[in-house]
Records
---
Amino acid sequence: MSSNLWEISIKEAGIKIIFRAVTPTAENTREAIEAGVDVIIATGFDEGGTVPANILPLIVDAADGKVPVVAAGGLVDKRTVRAAFDLGAEGVYAGTAFLATEESPLAEKIKQDMLKYDADDLLMFRAPNSLYRSLPGELPEKLLEMDKQGKSAAEIWAAAGDYNCLLYGMHDGDLSRGIASFGLGISSIHSIDPVSVVVNRLNSGVIA
């Protein structure tokens, strides 16, 4: 099936296509819009997990009003959401904010550790896609030391155990064989709340 026929069948089914680049750039934003996506997610350096490089205004300008741009990275409260909208976002994509909820499947130990640490406590090391951040712990500290020693991103990620490290660290709460990755918005999270409270908190930045 050609890409055009694929796009037509998707569109005819009423499915919206959301594009989120690992590292968003003006070029891949314009290419995605030309290919027919409906929404662009612009992920900034503040996010947890794989850390991209570019920032929201660049992507908003590249989209040029053709499709909505949704901001991701560091969005945890009214202040950060309001800032994203002021920079041109038309929606927000939140991760860390919802990890710090009663309904989140995170290990209870990791939830409590989230409340103890600020953004500058997170350890950052290279991975094949870009960079990863983690709460301090035995394995994250080992990975950081490997980074300082000049080991390759592939070697560091192999020592982490590939993406299983996120399962072991975040779901099982074992930072001796896993990592717990969060965005810089962790500094503004001071309690573990119901999802409904987090939604209302984020929404207050939209309607303010």
---
Amino acid sequence: MSNDVDALHWEDFVPRIPVAQRRSEFIKAAVDVIAIYGIEGATTRRIAEQAQANLAMLHYCYDSKEDLFADVYEYVASRFRDVIKDSDPHGNLADTARRILRGVMEFYLESPNFAAATLELISWARRQRGNRGITVYEQAMETVRATLRGASSDHPIEPETIDQLAYVLATLADGFALNWFTYGDRSAATEQMEITTSVLDSWLAVRLGSAPVAP
């Protein structure tokens, strides 16, 4: 009897986890590892350990680290698309722009690993062959533009103005993320959120004739 038990592998007693779930775990673990060690230091071994899985399982789910990072990049971008959609107050264009900016900044503030990993992944994606990184980033930007277009449907705005506003939002949010990532001072970051929003208000007032409003 004991020989029969000894012949079994310990894996036989562990419930099988679907590959899709394992990939999701590896993706989330990779975000944390990239935030701590950067792209170069995000080894598959560290990612597997963070996911509390063995290295063989990671290599079973992903043929290469590049394929894993591509999924991580898409995951991060999809999270930001969700934040943008959730920040849509279904109000006018100026209010929608403010909500998007504040929603993204608050997400950065509450998810510092995402702020750090995003900055790393943008540089990584730009170095990859082909346009995969650019395509994913453009998908996130199109979500911003689509939300802004929806907010301006009652009073149509020139497409050029929508493009410019989307660029302003991305620039302000990314600048906030870089400062937050660099200094990690939550109190200062909270104050900088107000400054950043006031910069957007000034742009809106000039381009749309929208007076700043209190948050």
